[in-house]
Protein backbone atom coordinates (compact mmCIF):
# COMPACT_ATOMS: atom_id res chain seq x y z
CA UNK A 1 0.00 0.00 0.00
CA UNK A 2 1.48 3.37 -0.94
CA UNK A 3 -1.18 5.33 0.93
CA UNK A 4 -2.36 3.21 3.86
CA UNK A 5 -5.61 4.12 5.61
CA UNK A 6 -5.08 3.86 9.36
CA UNK A 7 -7.79 4.31 12.01
CA UNK A 8 -6.47 5.55 15.36
CA UNK A 9 -8.27 4.87 18.65
CA UNK A 10 -6.27 6.26 21.58
CA UNK A 11 -8.96 5.05 24.00
CA UNK A 12 -8.50 5.62 27.73
CA UNK A 13 -5.86 6.42 30.33
CA UNK A 14 -2.26 6.27 29.15
CA UNK A 15 -3.52 5.26 25.69
CA UNK A 16 -4.21 8.99 25.25
CA UNK A 17 -0.63 9.79 26.31
CA UNK A 18 1.30 7.31 24.17
CA UNK A 19 -0.78 7.21 20.97
CA UNK A 20 -0.49 10.85 19.74
CA UNK A 21 3.34 11.06 19.85
CA UNK A 22 3.66 7.62 18.24
CA UNK A 23 1.29 8.59 15.38
CA UNK A 24 3.27 11.81 14.90
CA UNK A 25 6.53 9.86 14.79
CA UNK A 26 5.27 7.21 12.36
CA UNK A 27 3.73 9.87 10.13
CA UNK A 28 7.05 11.75 9.98
CA UNK A 29 8.95 8.55 9.20
CA UNK A 30 6.54 7.68 6.37
CA UNK A 31 6.46 11.20 4.88
CA UNK A 32 10.24 11.26 4.79
CA UNK A 33 10.00 8.18 2.55
CA UNK A 34 7.28 9.65 0.37
CA UNK A 35 4.47 7.59 1.91
CA UNK A 36 1.34 9.54 2.86
CA UNK A 37 -0.72 7.66 5.43
CA UNK A 38 -4.38 8.66 5.70
CA UNK A 39 -5.12 8.77 9.43
CA UNK A 40 -8.66 8.69 10.84
CA UNK A 41 -8.68 9.76 14.48
CA UNK A 42 -11.58 8.24 16.43
CA UNK A 43 -12.48 9.44 19.90
CA UNK A 44 -13.92 6.10 21.02
CA UNK A 45 -13.35 6.02 24.75
CA UNK A 46 -14.96 5.86 28.15
CA UNK A 47 -15.31 9.67 28.07
CA UNK A 48 -17.43 9.31 24.95
CA UNK A 49 -19.37 6.38 26.46
CA UNK A 50 -20.27 8.43 29.53
CA UNK A 51 -21.52 11.21 27.27
CA UNK A 52 -23.37 9.12 24.66
CA UNK A 53 -23.93 5.64 26.11
CA UNK A 54 -21.86 4.01 23.36
CA UNK A 55 -18.25 2.99 22.86
CA UNK A 56 -18.68 2.42 19.12
CA UNK A 57 -21.15 4.78 17.43
CA UNK A 58 -23.68 3.49 14.89
CA UNK A 59 -21.87 2.66 11.65
CA UNK A 60 -18.55 2.57 13.49
CA UNK A 61 -17.60 -0.97 12.52
CA UNK A 62 -18.42 -0.21 8.85
CA UNK A 63 -16.19 2.85 9.12
CA UNK A 64 -13.31 0.72 10.46
CA UNK A 65 -13.85 -1.78 7.63
CA UNK A 66 -12.72 0.89 5.18
CA UNK A 67 -9.23 0.99 6.75
CA UNK A 68 -6.10 -1.09 6.21
CA UNK A 69 -5.20 -1.13 9.90
CA UNK A 70 -6.32 0.09 13.31
CA UNK A 71 -3.86 1.48 15.85
CA UNK A 72 -5.28 1.30 19.37
CA UNK A 73 -3.95 2.57 22.70
CA UNK A 74 -5.76 1.07 25.66
CA UNK A 75 -9.29 0.76 27.00
CA UNK A 76 -10.49 0.70 30.61
CA UNK A 77 -11.57 3.33 33.11
CA UNK A 78 -12.38 2.91 36.80
CA UNK A 79 -15.75 4.64 36.25
CA UNK A 80 -17.09 1.80 34.05
CA UNK A 81 -16.95 -1.96 34.72
CA UNK A 82 -14.19 -3.56 32.64
CA UNK A 83 -16.63 -6.16 31.32
CA UNK A 84 -18.57 -3.29 29.68
CA UNK A 85 -15.69 -1.18 28.33
CA UNK A 86 -13.55 -4.02 27.04
CA UNK A 87 -16.51 -6.07 25.82
CA UNK A 88 -18.07 -3.17 23.90
CA UNK A 89 -14.90 -1.83 22.31
CA UNK A 90 -11.78 -4.01 22.21
CA UNK A 91 -13.25 -7.52 22.20
CA UNK A 92 -16.02 -6.43 19.84
CA UNK A 93 -13.52 -5.26 17.23
CA UNK A 94 -11.38 -8.42 17.57
CA UNK A 95 -14.44 -10.60 16.98
CA UNK A 96 -16.14 -8.51 14.33
CA UNK A 97 -13.11 -8.55 12.05
CA UNK A 98 -12.29 -12.17 12.90
CA UNK A 99 -8.80 -11.17 14.05
CA UNK A 100 -8.10 -14.71 15.10
CA UNK A 101 -4.37 -14.38 15.70
CA UNK A 102 -3.13 -12.31 18.59
CA UNK A 103 0.56 -11.99 17.79
CA UNK A 104 2.68 -11.03 20.78
CA UNK A 105 6.43 -10.89 20.07
CA UNK A 106 8.49 -10.76 23.25
CA UNK A 107 12.20 -10.05 23.13
CA UNK A 108 14.88 -8.75 25.46
CA UNK A 109 15.68 -5.04 25.07
CA UNK A 110 19.00 -3.20 25.43
CA UNK A 111 19.54 -0.65 28.17
CA UNK A 112 16.65 -1.66 30.42
CA UNK A 113 16.51 -3.26 33.86
CA UNK A 114 15.24 -6.81 33.45
CA UNK A 115 13.97 -8.81 36.43
CA UNK A 116 16.04 -11.88 35.48
CA UNK A 117 19.50 -10.52 36.15
CA UNK A 118 21.50 -13.24 34.46
CA UNK A 119 18.99 -14.03 31.76
CA UNK A 120 20.22 -14.75 28.26
CA UNK A 121 18.78 -12.60 25.45
CA UNK A 122 15.50 -14.01 24.16
CA UNK A 123 13.26 -13.58 21.15
CA UNK A 124 9.96 -15.45 21.12
CA UNK A 125 6.43 -14.95 19.84
CA UNK A 126 3.24 -15.88 21.64
CA UNK A 127 0.58 -16.75 19.04
CA UNK A 128 -2.60 -16.44 21.00
CA UNK A 129 -6.00 -17.62 19.72
CA UNK A 130 -8.14 -14.48 19.72
CA UNK A 131 -11.79 -15.25 18.96
CA UNK A 132 -12.95 -18.32 20.90
CA UNK A 133 -11.68 -20.62 23.68
CA UNK A 134 -12.14 -19.25 27.18
CA UNK A 135 -13.33 -15.88 25.74
CA UNK A 136 -16.34 -17.43 23.98
CA UNK A 137 -18.67 -15.34 26.17
CA UNK A 138 -21.14 -18.13 26.82
CA UNK A 139 -22.39 -18.77 30.32
CA UNK A 140 -24.94 -17.93 32.92
CA UNK A 141 -25.75 -17.48 36.56
CA UNK A 142 -28.65 -18.72 38.65
CA UNK A 143 -29.69 -18.01 42.26
CA UNK A 144 -27.47 -14.91 42.39
CA UNK A 145 -26.27 -14.20 45.91
CA UNK A 146 -27.97 -17.29 47.40
CA UNK A 147 -26.17 -20.27 48.92
CA UNK A 148 -27.17 -22.49 46.00
CA UNK A 149 -25.76 -20.05 43.45
CA UNK A 150 -24.22 -21.61 40.33
CA UNK A 151 -22.18 -19.84 37.66
CA UNK A 152 -21.15 -21.40 34.36
CA UNK A 153 -18.58 -19.94 31.95
CA UNK A 154 -18.11 -22.15 28.90
CA UNK A 155 -15.04 -22.44 26.70
CA UNK A 156 -15.53 -23.18 23.03
CA UNK A 157 -12.89 -24.85 20.85
CA UNK A 158 -13.74 -25.49 17.20
CA UNK A 159 -11.67 -27.61 14.84
CA UNK A 160 -11.51 -24.79 12.31
CA UNK A 161 -10.55 -22.28 14.99
CA UNK A 162 -7.81 -24.34 16.60
CA UNK A 163 -6.45 -25.58 13.28
CA UNK A 164 -6.06 -22.13 11.70
CA UNK A 165 -4.28 -20.83 14.80
CA UNK A 166 -1.85 -23.76 14.81
CA UNK A 167 -1.25 -23.55 11.08
CA UNK A 168 -0.35 -19.87 11.46
CA UNK A 169 2.02 -20.78 14.33
CA UNK A 170 3.83 -23.45 12.31
CA UNK A 171 4.13 -21.18 9.27
CA UNK A 172 5.62 -18.48 11.47
CA UNK A 173 8.05 -20.92 13.11
CA UNK A 174 9.15 -22.15 9.69
CA UNK A 175 10.31 -18.57 8.92
CA UNK A 176 11.98 -18.27 12.35
CA UNK A 177 13.96 -20.85 14.32
CA UNK A 178 11.60 -23.74 13.60
CA UNK A 179 10.22 -24.64 17.03
CA UNK A 180 6.55 -24.59 18.09
CA UNK A 181 5.56 -25.11 21.72
CA UNK A 182 1.86 -25.51 22.45
CA UNK A 183 0.56 -24.38 25.82
CA UNK A 184 -1.88 -27.04 26.94
CA UNK A 185 -3.33 -28.57 30.10
CA UNK A 186 -4.57 -31.93 28.87
CA UNK A 187 -4.04 -33.58 32.26
CA UNK A 188 -6.95 -31.63 33.76
CA UNK A 189 -8.89 -30.13 30.82
CA UNK A 190 -9.58 -33.49 29.22
CA UNK A 191 -11.98 -32.19 26.55
CA UNK A 192 -10.58 -28.95 25.23
CA UNK A 193 -6.88 -29.56 25.67
CA UNK A 194 -6.80 -33.21 24.59
CA UNK A 195 -8.55 -31.99 21.44
CA UNK A 196 -6.03 -29.13 21.06
CA UNK A 197 -3.14 -31.61 21.22
CA UNK A 198 -4.77 -33.87 18.62
CA UNK A 199 -5.26 -31.00 16.18
CA UNK A 200 -1.70 -29.81 16.80
CA UNK A 201 -0.27 -33.27 16.12
CA UNK A 202 -2.20 -33.35 12.82
CA UNK A 203 -1.00 -29.92 11.73
CA UNK A 204 2.58 -30.77 12.76
CA UNK A 205 2.59 -33.56 10.12
CA UNK A 206 2.41 -30.87 7.42
CA UNK A 207 5.55 -29.18 8.80
CA UNK A 208 8.24 -31.85 9.03
CA UNK A 209 10.91 -29.15 9.27
CA UNK A 210 9.41 -27.67 12.43
CA UNK A 211 10.05 -29.20 15.82
CA UNK A 212 6.86 -29.56 17.88
CA UNK A 213 6.25 -30.13 21.56
CA UNK A 214 3.46 -29.41 24.03
CA UNK A 215 3.91 -28.31 27.62
CA UNK A 216 1.24 -27.89 30.30
CA UNK A 217 0.58 -24.23 30.97
CA UNK A 218 1.72 -24.36 34.59
CA UNK A 219 5.06 -25.96 33.73
CA UNK A 220 5.38 -23.63 30.74
CA UNK A 221 5.01 -20.57 32.96
CA UNK A 222 7.80 -21.88 35.17
CA UNK A 223 10.04 -22.76 32.20
CA UNK A 224 9.53 -19.29 30.71
CA UNK A 225 10.75 -17.63 33.89
CA UNK A 226 13.68 -20.02 34.13
CA UNK A 227 14.90 -19.50 30.56
CA UNK A 228 12.84 -17.65 27.93
CA UNK A 229 15.66 -18.10 25.38
CA UNK A 230 14.60 -21.74 24.95
CA UNK A 231 11.37 -20.69 23.17
CA UNK A 232 10.63 -19.67 19.61
CA UNK A 233 6.87 -19.76 18.85
CA UNK A 234 4.38 -20.48 21.63
CA UNK A 235 0.89 -21.39 20.36
CA UNK A 236 -1.84 -20.97 22.91
CA UNK A 237 -5.51 -20.63 23.64
CA UNK A 238 -7.01 -17.21 24.28
CA UNK A 239 -6.65 -17.06 28.09
CA UNK A 240 -3.38 -18.98 28.35
CA UNK A 241 -1.80 -16.62 25.80
CA UNK A 242 -3.14 -13.57 27.62
CA UNK A 243 -1.39 -14.65 30.81
CA UNK A 244 1.85 -15.82 29.16
CA UNK A 245 2.18 -12.51 27.28
CA UNK A 246 2.12 -10.44 30.48
CA UNK A 247 4.63 -12.83 32.02
CA UNK A 248 6.88 -12.51 28.95
CA UNK A 249 6.42 -8.74 28.85
CA UNK A 250 7.68 -8.31 32.37
CA UNK A 251 10.68 -10.50 31.48
CA UNK A 252 11.44 -7.84 28.83
CA UNK A 253 11.51 -5.30 31.64
CA UNK A 254 7.96 -3.96 31.85
CA UNK A 255 4.51 -4.81 30.67
CA UNK A 256 4.61 -1.35 29.07
CA UNK A 257 7.18 -2.57 26.55
CA UNK A 258 5.37 -5.40 24.76
CA UNK A 259 3.43 -4.99 21.49
CA UNK A 260 0.64 -6.98 19.91
CA UNK A 261 -1.15 -7.42 16.62
CA UNK A 262 -4.72 -8.70 16.34
CA UNK A 263 -4.42 -10.18 12.91
CA UNK A 264 -6.78 -11.42 10.27
CA UNK A 265 -4.20 -12.86 7.87
CA UNK A 266 -6.46 -12.84 4.80
CA UNK A 267 -6.37 -9.01 4.77
CA UNK A 268 -9.93 -8.61 3.56
CA UNK A 269 -10.58 -7.07 6.97
CA UNK A 270 -8.46 -4.65 9.00
CA UNK A 271 -6.05 -5.92 11.63
CA UNK A 272 -5.59 -4.02 14.89
CA UNK A 273 -2.32 -3.16 16.63
CA UNK A 274 -2.10 -2.28 20.33
CA UNK A 275 0.33 -2.63 23.22
CA UNK A 276 -0.14 -5.56 25.59
CA UNK A 277 -0.61 -3.19 28.54
CA UNK A 278 -3.82 -1.51 29.66
CA UNK A 279 -4.84 2.04 30.53
CA UNK A 280 -2.70 2.09 33.72
CA UNK A 281 -4.95 4.30 35.90
CA UNK A 282 -2.24 4.28 38.60
CA UNK A 283 0.17 6.39 36.51
CA UNK A 284 -2.21 8.29 34.25
CA UNK A 285 -1.55 12.04 33.98
CA UNK A 286 2.05 11.83 35.15
CA UNK A 287 3.60 11.68 31.69
CA UNK A 288 5.81 8.72 32.58
CA UNK A 289 4.13 5.93 30.60
CA UNK A 290 6.54 4.03 28.39
CA UNK A 291 5.68 4.47 24.69
CA UNK A 292 7.73 1.36 23.81
CA UNK A 293 4.77 -1.07 23.64
CA UNK A 294 2.91 1.40 21.42
CA UNK A 295 5.97 2.01 19.24
CA UNK A 296 6.65 -1.70 18.75
CA UNK A 297 2.94 -2.18 17.96
CA UNK A 298 3.40 0.41 15.20
CA UNK A 299 6.37 -1.68 13.98
CA UNK A 300 4.05 -4.70 13.66
CA UNK A 301 1.50 -2.52 11.87
CA UNK A 302 4.03 -1.21 9.34
CA UNK A 303 5.12 -4.77 8.64
CA UNK A 304 1.53 -5.83 8.13
CA UNK A 305 1.01 -2.90 5.71
CA UNK A 306 3.93 -4.08 3.59
CA UNK A 307 6.22 -1.29 4.82
CA UNK A 308 8.90 -3.72 5.96
CA UNK A 309 11.81 -1.31 5.57
CA UNK A 310 10.16 1.39 7.69
CA UNK A 311 9.17 -1.27 10.25
CA UNK A 312 12.77 -2.46 10.54
CA UNK A 313 14.10 1.09 10.90
CA UNK A 314 11.56 2.01 13.57
CA UNK A 315 12.31 -1.18 15.50
CA UNK A 316 16.04 -0.45 15.30
CA UNK A 317 15.51 3.15 16.42
CA UNK A 318 13.48 2.08 19.47
CA UNK A 319 16.24 -0.34 20.50
CA UNK A 320 19.00 2.22 19.88
CA UNK A 321 17.15 4.90 21.86
CA UNK A 322 16.72 2.43 24.73
CA UNK A 323 20.41 1.46 24.56
CA UNK A 324 21.37 5.15 24.83
CA UNK A 325 19.26 5.44 27.99
CA UNK A 326 17.27 8.38 26.56
CA UNK A 327 14.11 6.33 26.02
CA UNK A 328 14.18 4.44 29.32
CA UNK A 329 11.14 5.35 31.43
CA UNK A 330 10.88 4.60 35.19
CA UNK A 331 9.13 1.23 34.69
CA UNK A 332 12.18 0.10 32.67
CA UNK A 333 14.64 1.47 35.23
CA UNK A 334 15.32 4.95 33.82
CA UNK A 335 14.16 8.54 34.20
CA UNK A 336 12.81 9.47 30.74
CA UNK A 337 9.25 10.67 30.32
CA UNK A 338 6.87 9.72 27.49
CA UNK A 339 7.68 12.73 25.31
CA UNK A 340 11.43 12.46 25.92
CA UNK A 341 11.42 8.78 24.99
CA UNK A 342 9.61 9.52 21.71
CA UNK A 343 11.98 12.40 20.90
CA UNK A 344 14.95 10.09 21.53
CA UNK A 345 13.56 7.59 19.00
CA UNK A 346 12.92 10.41 16.51
CA UNK A 347 16.52 11.62 16.89
CA UNK A 348 17.84 8.16 16.01
CA UNK A 349 15.60 8.15 12.94
CA UNK A 350 16.91 11.58 12.00
CA UNK A 351 13.37 12.89 11.97
CA UNK A 352 12.88 15.35 14.82
CA UNK A 353 9.40 15.50 16.27
CA UNK A 354 8.07 18.75 17.79
P1 LIG B 1 -2.25 -2.24 33.13
O1 LIG B 1 -1.48 -2.83 32.02
O2 LIG B 1 -3.05 -1.03 32.77
O3 LIG B 1 -1.26 -1.86 34.33
C1 LIG B 1 -0.52 -2.84 35.07
C2 LIG B 1 0.73 -2.18 35.69
O4 LIG B 1 1.68 -1.91 34.65
C3 LIG B 1 0.41 -0.84 36.35
O5 LIG B 1 1.21 -0.69 37.49
C4 LIG B 1 0.83 0.18 35.29
O6 LIG B 1 1.23 1.43 35.81
C5 LIG B 1 1.98 -0.54 34.59
N1 LIG B 1 2.06 -0.13 33.18
C6 LIG B 1 1.24 -0.54 32.18
N2 LIG B 1 1.59 0.04 31.03
C7 LIG B 1 2.63 0.84 31.28
C8 LIG B 1 3.44 1.70 30.48
N3 LIG B 1 3.22 1.86 29.15
N4 LIG B 1 4.46 2.37 31.08
C9 LIG B 1 4.71 2.20 32.39
N5 LIG B 1 3.99 1.41 33.21
C10 LIG B 1 2.96 0.73 32.65
O7 LIG B 1 -3.20 -3.38 33.71
P2 LIG B 1 -4.39 -3.29 34.81
O8 LIG B 1 -4.00 -2.33 35.87
O9 LIG B 1 -4.73 -4.66 35.12
O10 LIG B 1 -5.61 -2.68 34.01
C11 LIG B 1 -5.97 -1.31 34.00
C12 LIG B 1 -7.15 -1.14 33.04
O11 LIG B 1 -6.74 -1.44 31.70
C13 LIG B 1 -8.32 -2.06 33.33
O12 LIG B 1 -9.49 -1.36 33.01
C14 LIG B 1 -8.10 -3.22 32.38
O13 LIG B 1 -9.26 -3.93 32.09
C15 LIG B 1 -7.58 -2.48 31.17
N6 LIG B 1 -6.76 -3.27 30.24
C16 LIG B 1 -6.91 -2.95 28.92
C17 LIG B 1 -6.11 -3.58 27.98
C18 LIG B 1 -6.27 -3.20 26.55
O14 LIG B 1 -6.81 -2.16 26.22
N7 LIG B 1 -5.80 -3.99 25.63
C19 LIG B 1 -5.15 -4.51 28.38
C20 LIG B 1 -5.01 -4.80 29.75
C21 LIG B 1 -5.83 -4.16 30.68
C1 LIG C 1 -5.15 -7.90 26.56
C2 LIG C 1 -6.13 -7.54 27.64
C3 LIG C 1 -7.54 -7.95 27.25
C4 LIG C 1 -7.57 -9.44 27.03
C5 LIG C 1 -8.60 -7.57 28.29
C6 LIG C 1 -8.47 -6.13 28.67
C7 LIG C 1 -9.99 -7.90 27.82
O1 LIG C 1 -5.75 -8.10 28.84
O2 LIG C 1 -5.28 -7.38 25.44
O3 LIG C 1 -4.23 -8.66 26.84
O4 LIG C 1 -7.75 -10.22 27.97
O5 LIG C 1 -7.41 -9.86 25.89
MN1 LIG D 1 -3.85 -9.12 28.77
From TrEMBL:
<keyword id="KW-0560">Oxidoreductase</keyword>
<dbReference type="GO" id="GO:0016491">
    <property type="term" value="F:oxidoreductase activity"/>
</dbReference>
<dbReference type="GO" id="GO:0046872">
    <property type="term" value="F:metal ion binding"/>
</dbReference>
<feature type="domain" description="Isopropylmalate dehydrogenase-like">
    <location>
        <begin position="5"/>
        <end position="345"/>
    </location>
</feature>
<keyword id="KW-0464">Manganese</keyword>
<protein>
    <submittedName>
        <fullName>Tartrate dehydrogenase</fullName>
    </submittedName>
</protein>
<dbReference type="InterPro" id="IPR050501">
    <property type="entry name" value="ICDH/IPMDH"/>
</dbReference>
<dbReference type="InterPro" id="IPR024084">
    <property type="entry name" value="IsoPropMal-DH-like_dom"/>
</dbReference>
<dbReference type="Pfam" id="PF00180">
    <property type="entry name" value="Iso_dh"/>
</dbReference>
<keyword id="KW-0479">Metal-binding</keyword>
<keyword id="KW-0520">NAD</keyword>
